[in-house]
Amino acid sequence: MNLTIALRTFKARQKEMGEGHCSKQALDSWPVVFRRFLDLKAIDHGGFKESVDCGQCKMAQTGQYKESLKCCTYFPFLPCFSVGGVLAGGGPGASVVNDMIRNRQFVLPIGVVPSWQYRTKHKSMGGADFGQREDLLCPFFQKSTRNCTIWKSRNSACTTFYCSSDRGQAGLDAWAELYDDLYELEMHLVQEYLLFRGFSWEEICEQLEYLKLPANQMPIEYLPQEKMDSLWQHWQNQESRFFIEAFHWVSELSDADFLP
Ligand code: SF4
Ligand code: SF4
To answer: Which value does ipTM take for this structure?
Structure first.
């Protein structure tokens, strides 16, 4: 599926969405790079209700998740343009990203990827661990405020994740469908930007392999300097600029730029 088809599928899905499929409050909170692809006028015809309030997390109130963790025992892949949005916005989220860049914590041109150490821990997680295990908490979650520090630049998974508090199974299914389409769009945008910056398909494919946990791989937290040098090539030591420019590049795309 190419970027054009991904965008069309995403837009067609919005038109299929009828009453109650998605809360308007939730759609209004989408990151700016994704909101550009929403046809809010089409969605508004559905007559939405506001049905979930994450500030008053029901899963925490009922003890299913810890209040200090909520549903953020998850490390999202943060695509390059979202990383740029975080860095451009400053604040605690940007400090986390800057530390990751400094420490070589799986910060690749495609974006910030969970380390193999994190993935190894996550693989061992049981269903009851979600919302309970502090060692799996997202690095962008701020415990003091119990909130996400990168809300305006969160990825497709975090943008479309709502627990069963949002209309039970029907809500879970509707959000999962929207996630599939938004993820597809997100990944195409990442690849288009890297091609634009001169990376080859082979180099992009090598990076995409980091989204999986390789078999028999050491559960490392940091990548060796030589590996980082080869992944970043001529963008070494300019990671922040690379990401911020990705954010602006995606933000300035219009339908006409990639719809034939
Ligand atoms: S999506 Fe559900 S679990 Fe997550 S913060 Fe909102 S109410 Fe809580
Ligand atoms: S990025 Fe934000 S919403 Fe997503 S898991 Fe982390 S803290 Fe939660």
So the answer is: 0.97
For residue 244, how far is its CA from the centre of ligand 1 (angstroms)? 29
Q: Whose CA is nearest to atom 1 of ligand 1?
A: 162
134-149 confidence digits (pLDDT tens): 999 999 999 888 889 9
Tens of pLDDT, residue by residue over 235-256, are 999 999 999 999 999 988 876 6
Instruction: Decide: 58 in ligand 1 pocket, CB within 6 A.
Output: yes
How many domains is the chain built from?
Answer: 1
Interacting residues of 9 by C-beta distance below 8 A, sequence separation 6+: 1, 181, 184
The finding on whether 72 has its CB within 6 A of some atom of ligand 1 is: no
Nearest ligand 1 atom, CA 60:
8
Range of the domain at 104: 3-258
Q: Burial, 249: exposed, middle or buried (Cβ in 10 Å; 0-12, 13-18, 19+)?
A: middle
